[in-house]
Design goal:
The complex is a heterodimer. Chain A is an alpha/beta fold. Chain A is built from 9 helices and 10 strands. In chain A, strand 7, helix 9 and strand 8 form a beta-alpha-beta unit. The radius of gyration of chain A is 19 Å and the shape is globular. The termini of chain B are close together. Chain B has a single domain, classed as Methylesterase CheB, C-terminal domain (Rossmann fold), CATH 3.40.50. Classes of the chains: A alpha/beta, B alpha/beta.
Amino acid sequence: MELEIDIIDIRKLVNTIKMVYGFDFGEYALSSFKRRLARIIEVYKFDNMADLIEKVRVDKPFYELFLKEVTVNTTEMFRDPSMWKKLKETVFPVVKDYSTIRIWHSACSTGEEVYSMAIALKEAGLYEKARIFASDINEDVIAKALEGKYPARNMELNGFNYEKFEGKLKLNHYFKSTGDYVFMDQDLLRNVTFRKFDLVQGDQTMRFDIILCRNVLIYFNLPLQDQIVGKFAKCTSQGGFLALGSKETIAWCKSVDNYNTFSLEEKIYQRK
Amino acid sequence: MSNYKAVVIGGSAGSFPLVVKILSSLPKNYPFPVFLALHRLKHIRNGFVEALSLKSNIPVIEPHDKEVIKPGIAYLAPSNYHMYVELGNTIALSTEDMVKYSRPSIDLTFDTASYIYKDKMVGVIVSGANTDGAEGIKRSKERGAFTIAQNPDEATIKTMPDAAIKAAEMDKILSIDEICKFLVSIAN
C-alpha cells in the first residue's frame, strides 16, 4: 500500500498550488486526492511530500503533468448500461423533435462515453441533428478520444455493456480490430467538437439539452459539487437533462430546486 | 457501551452467508455504522443489497457519494466503486483503478476508515479467494484498530483471512459465531 501522507503536507501543497498557479485543490475530496498524491509520489519516485511540493512549485511543466495525473480517467463504453437504456428509451423521445440536440460531455476522459453517445444517437436516427461538445481538463485524454484507439482487451467489457444496453447491432460494427488495439469508426466524431475545459474555473457560455457529468463530482467536496451543479443549471435548456454517475446525487445541492428527478435509479435530472 | 465507533467487514468468495449471519445477529439500533467492503459481480448493480437486507436487523444501503454516516446502518460498497470513509463523517466514492483486481477494494475501505476511526474501529476479514484486505487491515492495526480474522480453518475459502493473519498480528482469530457474539457484545 502507498506511503502514508500527512494532512498537513496536503494543505501545504494545496496552498502552494493556489499561490503559484491559482488552482484550488482545497475543495477536492480528501481520500481520493490523497491516494492520487501517493500514486504520483510512487510513479515519479519522490522521497517525500516536501520534495513533491517543491517540484510543483518551481517546475511549471511538472505542475501541468501533475494536474493530469491527479484527475481520474477511468471510463468504459456504455458504463451502467441501464442508464444508457434509460437515455435511449425516455430521454431521446423528449428531444427527438428538437431541430438540434445539443449535448455536453463535461468530462469526456478518453472518449468512451462520447463514442457511446454517438452510437446510441445513430441507432436512434438522431445523430444528424446532434451537436456534441466534449471537454476535459486534460488535453492528453482528449487526444486519445480523438484518436479512438483502445486496447482490444477492453472491448469485451464494452461489448458486454453494449449488449445490456440492447444496441441494435454488435459493437464491433463500430470499430476495426488490428491486433492489440481497436480503432473506432471516425465517422462517429463527425458532429463532435472536443475542447480543453476546466469544469471548476471555466465558464460555459453555450446551452445544452443533455449534459453528462458522470463520476466526476465524487472527487469534489459538497460545496464544490454544489457550485458545479449550479453552473450546469445555468447552461441547461428548459426541460434539458443532467445525467450523473449511478451513486452521485444533487439532493444536497442548492440548485436541486432547479431540477425535477427524471430517473432516480439512473440519476437523470430534468431542468425546470 | 464500548469505545468503538465503527465496524468494517471485508470479504469475498464465500463471505455472503457469513455477512448475512452477522447482519442477522446484530440488534436493531446497533450503535455503530457497519461498512461492508465485499467483492461482488462486476457490473451487476442490483440484487446484492436486497439479498443482504432480507435477514438483516439493520438497514443495508449502498450509499451515495458524500452521504452522512449514521449509526445502526450497514453501508455496502456499491458495484464498480471504491468506498471511502471521508472527513466530516461522510462516505466518498471513487472510480479509481482497481486495486488487486477489485473495485470495490477492501484495502481502500479499511485504509480510509482506520484513518478516521483509528483505535475506535473494529476490522473483520472473513472468507475470500484473494489477498485484498490484508494491507488494509495491517494499516488499520498500525493505527490502533481492533482486528479480527475469521478462523481460516472454518472459512469457505481461507486465502483472505490467511493473508490478513500473515500481514499483521490479529487481535483475535474467531469462528463466525464468535465474531457475531463479539460484535454484539461491543454494543452493550
